């Protein structure tokens, strides 16, 4: 029977990311807390820049593309040169808005790049420290331990499971923070523009 060989049972290994396990992993992440703080700051900056993109588009449309048309009714639709002269400032404004949008997009791309690099570096270092600790722990076990537990399962625990923890630190945590700040920012912007319409839109949000 398999139980005679001391195999791990799947139901005993099925509790994912419980509080006790996270507490045991915290010392590994605490060493690189500065990188996590920098990453959170970058996430906040990225969120603010992403929220500013539609606002710049709004300014371009309201002020330059579809402004008050009363001053342009004097120009006949066929008088293209006169219309261009009248809307010269609007054309300049649209160009400036396009330039600002380009700068914002490049800034978001650059900050995203640095944020991913920082988190990947932190995750790799945490994974390195964790694997060294596990390796030292396994090396200190008796021969009977390796007799009771399959080597393949031990290798899986040291490699694949540690990689999954790396994904938790580098991807899941960052995405949760970013989505939270993004939703909070969207809610603030909507309420500042039209709080009645915003509250009406919030009624369809899942609780």
TrEMBL record:
Pfam families: ABC_membrane (PF00664)
Lipid bilayer topology: Multi-pass membrane protein
Transit peptide listed as a keyword: no
PROSITE patterns: ABC_TM1F
ABC transmembrane type-1 domain mapped to chain residues: 37-207
GO cellular component terms, A-Z: membrane
Membrane spanning residue stretches: 34-53, 91-114, 168-193
Protein name, per record: ABC transmembrane type-1 domain-containing protein
